[in-house]
Amino acid sequence: MTPQDRAEKSAEAMWATDSASKWLGMTLDAVGPGTAVMSFTVQEHHLNGHRICHGGYIFTLADSAFAFACNSYNQVTVAQSNSITYVSPGRPDERLTATATEVSKAGRSGIYDVAVTGEDGRTVALFRGLSRSLKGQNFEEDQ
């Protein structure tokens, strides 16, 4: 199995039970070893009192992309710590895209950066996630 095949099969297994991302209207647009791209369109129910996308939804989009990127090796991996910096607002009816990229993976620990961008290419938020691998696989595979 190629690393790309493994990443796609891991994503398929996770997506099958990822009720939260689906419920929020996210799509998994791409996945590869240590990478993932997810997006969603800002809808009325995502808006806060300033009529911009609530930061919690932006965080969730980034966190979901992070999860698919760090689980792309078919090893159950969870978040250990995350931080986010909001740069510009997500606007009503705008499609936001989160692109997760592996920065470092050593042993059971990983570091991933996620850039959330708007339709016009501007940076909406920058997220850094630290991961920790556990026992278990996302799908059964001989090792």
Polypeptide structure, described:
With 143 residues, the protein is of the alpha+beta class. It has a single domain, classed as Thiol Ester Dehydrase, Chain A (Roll). The chain has 3 helices and 6 strands. The chain has helices spanning 3-15, 19-23, 55-70, and strands at 27-32, 35-41, 77-86, 95-106, 109-117, 123-133. It has a 6-stranded antiparallel beta sheet. The model has no long low-confidence stretch (mean pLDDT 96).
Keywords:
six-stranded antiparallel β-sheet, Thiol Ester Dehydrase, Chain A, 3 helices, alpha+beta, 143 residues, Thioestr_dom
Order of strands across the widest beta sheet? 1-2-4-5-6-3
> What is the overall pLDDT average?
96
CATH architecture identity:
Roll
- Provide the CATH topology: Thiol Ester Dehydrase, Chain A
Overall spatial form: globular
CATH class: Alpha Beta
What is the count of structural domains?
1
> End-to-end distance, in Å?
11 Å
**Helix percentage:** 10-25%
Low-confidence stretches: none
GO molecular function, one term: acyl-CoA hydrolase activity
Family: Belongs to the thioesterase PaaI family.
Pfam family, one: 4HBT
Protein name: Phenylacetic acid degradation protein PaaD
